[in-house]
Give the backbone structure.
Amino acid sequence: MRGKEGAWNMSNENANADLIADYLGEASEYVDRLNQGLLELSEGDGVWPQDKVNALFRCAHSLKGLSACFGYDKTNKVTHELESLLTLVRDGKVAPTTAIVRVMFDAVDLVQTLTAEIAGSGHEHVATEIVLESLERARGAAAPEPGKAEAGPARDEATPAASGPTAANPEANETVRVRMERLDRMVNLTGELVVARSRFQLVARQLRALHRLTEFASESQDLARGLEELEAATARRGGDDRTRQRLEGMLEQARRLHAIARDFDGRVLRDVDDVAYDLDGVVSEIHEAVLQLRMVPLESVFRRLHRVVRDTADTLGKGVDFEVLGGETQIDKRVADELVNPLVHMLRNAVDHGLESTATRRSAGKPERGHVVVAAFQRGSSVVIELRDDGGGIDPGKVLKKAVESGLVTSEEAAAMSPQQAQRLIFAPGFSTAAAVTEVSGRGMGMDIVADGIKRLRGSLELKSEVGKGTVFTVQLPPSMSIQTSLLLQVRGTMFALPLTEVREIVELQRVAVQHVQSRRMIVVRDRPMPLVLLPEAYRFPEAAASCAAPADEGAQHAIVFGFPGNEVALGVDRLVGKEDLVLKPLCPELAAVRGLAGMAIRGDGKVTLILDPQGFADHAMRRHGAAVALPG
């Protein structure tokens, strides 16, 4: 009985988890619609069209009913009060002033917080009294006629929903809600399938050597014939019995070898090659299809950014025009969720530090309202997000001065830095140019949290800024966090991998001149000087590998260029192996503290490959060998 009861409890828990997942999915959609609808109306000319207010009302009403059905009382009370306030606005009894809109936004923010709590613990804990009182005060601004306000919701509830593709044909756009844990498991299993495909292809390549069995069959037959002739000749000459016995034994062995080789059917190997080819196509399609299941448009992320810009600009008293492009670009749901905080921080930073005050912009001949753009697009298999502003840019001199004062760099290191390197110091932990702590900035948490967030997503972050004209941040993200297309490279017998999206160029070292500047190797690629870094100098290789390899200068045949403009690095490697899809695994405890490594992967041959973190490795190599020195002239 206990076993059955335990099984029932487990089944019941899983069912409850599925129900909560369904609630969270619907609730999040309603919250997004409320946020977006309020934002559009608040940025209008002050006139709230009836149909748009009705759409907001229906969202609040649906969320109220949904939360009541699941027993989430706090969400139910907040949405009930919000629904009542929207009724008064719709009926023209309360004007949608800035204060009223702020109360509505606070209510939606509270519901979003409650939804996040439910997702984490299944319960609601946040206090709701302050927001509920604000909603009640806002409703108190109008005294509705008895029964009038109550009749309004009844009319809307009786009114059928707007017709659309789904209403006209329920099967036209059918969807099924699936918990993210299940999708994650599918993605992980698909990753293992990719590894299994690589192993099968490796075995198929090794089996190709069996094609030579057909040659062996012919040669063993010739050998048997030769032995027969030799045996006959020996018998004619009257050779001794011992010699004849040996020849008979050798002849028998030759005949058995011929029989074995003759039975081999070369069509089997051709079938294996065909199956390997078909398997490659099927696995690729399955992999792509599974990854697509987790893809969502970036619009789901960008919708949240409008509020950030609006609220930050209002707090700082700045006029800002915000533009979003490429919201239809698809990205992994996990990446989208983790991307919100870095983008929010970057936008706040752009409005606060990037855009000048109205007076400063006016005196510089710029439009009084600043312009901030977030644009997304595909670049190969990667997703690129650009955040641009037309502000004052990042002054490298001011950044260096602050960095030296803060002890982040020495005066000597600062003097050797290029403008681009100086600007990237804004990503150093604890760096901030804010003169005072405010609600927006100056809390000791600078752009380093952005860089860390992008790194966790296995992405790259570039910065381009011109003083007086503005700044562009470019985020490049892989299509998946679990599988990564990598360039395989070998150094002294050890296999490494580099994300293919990070590779800017591959150079044959025989075609470029390696120069030494202050005891450091430098090469010039397309008129760009950059340090030549060698892995054995950055990491300690086993003595056996070091002793059997050529000297560092002679061993490297190619250099892989990566990094950001103005701080590029050329990594010398012995051999380029090719590209391969790798299933990323976390580093083992022994390697977790090694700088410049992003993870590890087990390839089809069962061997471990270390995956380099390009920017982390470049920083590690530069710290180990000193700051890069530009070539003279």
Summary: The chain has 22 helices and 18 strands.
